[in-house]
Amino acid sequence: MNIILLGPPGAGKGTQAKLLEEQHGMIQLSTGDMLRAAVKRGEPLGLEAKKIMDAGGLVPDHLMIKMIEDRIRKPDCAKGFILDGFPRTVPQAEALDKMLSACGKKLDAVIELKVDEAALIERVSGRFTCAKCGTGYHKKFKPPKHAGVCDVCGSTEFICRPDDNPETMKTRLKAFQDQTAPILPYYRQKGLLKSVDGMASMDAVHGSIEHILGETGKA
Ligand code: ADP
Ligand code: ADP
Ligand code: ZN
């Protein structure tokens, strides 16, 4: 199955994508992670994107469309993919439709995670990841089992994203409202949009998504 997880920054897209990867062997395609990897490698695209990401804006459509088009053609996507962070604008959604039909693929569902603004701010403020293996944590909602030690790889080094601060979060939330929310009616019209209460616990949200995938699979 090919799905999109749609929601504002901190809604739980990455968390849910990882759970679906474990359960179904689908591939998580996170444009945010791809951009951060390009920044780390010092690629020209990374240098261009970094300023925009640090300011909380959106990277230009043509760059993002090219990035996802190259990725979606890779053989591992045949098992099904979870788009996390793409599309973020109506032109990106339209380009996605074109590239999928060009390679004979289709979207099965677009799952919207609904979360209140106050909760989003609390979620990004407490978010951190293992510097070595990238496992995601939250200081209140998902702390490591042993304080300061990664559950997965045992590393004791963690990193916070430079854009996960209250100031930049304001700009990112506005970008979501102004540029990303308009893609909700786009998918509603196509009958693909499903909404989930993203305020629930990580496990409960996962359960709701599994339910949707079960229903979609039957349809
Ligand atoms: P996104 O990819 O949408 O930006 P993440 O999946 O990275 O969001 O989640 C943001 C932060 O909130 C992370 O620290 C994560 O551990 C935490 N989180 C995710 N889902 C929930 C949830 N349902 N309840 C509480 N905290 C959550
Ligand atoms: P979050 O998990 O908080 O929603 P992401 O990790 O998906 O954030 O994205 C981080 C930043 O990368 C965004 O604020 C934006 O600058 C850039 N970005 C990621 N995906 C896209 C996209 N599809 N279009 C434009 N910019 C993007
Ligand atoms: Zn780790």
Offer a few descriptive terms.
219 residues; alpha/beta; five-stranded parallel sheet; three-stranded antiparallel sheet; globular; binds adenosine-5'-diphosphate; binds zinc ion
The poorly predicted ranges are none
Work out the strand percent: 5-15%
Amount of helix: 40-55%
Radius of gyration: 17 Å
The structure class reads: alpha/beta
Tally of helical runs: 9
Q: How many beta-strand elements?
A: 8
The strands making up the biggest β-sheet line up spatially as 2-3-1-4-8
Bound molecules: adenosine-5'-diphosphate, zinc ion
Largest sheet: 5 strands, parallel
Principal-axes shape call: globular
N-to-C SSE series? EHEHHHEHEHEEEHHEH
Overall residue-averaged pLDDT value: 97
Give the terminus-to-terminus CA distance: 12 Å
Structure description:
The protein has 219 residues and is an alpha/beta fold. The protein is 49% helix and 15% strand. The protein has 9 helices and 8 strands. The chain has helices spanning 13-24, 31-40, 44-55, 61-72, 90-102, 117-125, 166-180, 183-189, 202-218; strands at 3-6, 27-30, 81-84, 109-114, 127-130, 136-138, 158-159, 193-197. Strands 2-3-1-4-8 form a 5-stranded parallel sheet, with helices on both faces. A 3-stranded antiparallel sheet has the order 6-5-7. Strand 5 and strand 6 (136-138) form a beta hairpin. Helix 1 (13-24) packs across helix 9, helix 2 (31-40) crosses helix 3 and helix 4 (61-72) runs parallel beside helix 5. The chain is globular. The two termini are 12 Å apart. The mean pLDDT is 97. Bound molecules: adenosine-5'-diphosphate (2 copies) and zinc ion. Zinc ion is lined by residues 130, 132-133, 135, 150, 152-153, 155.
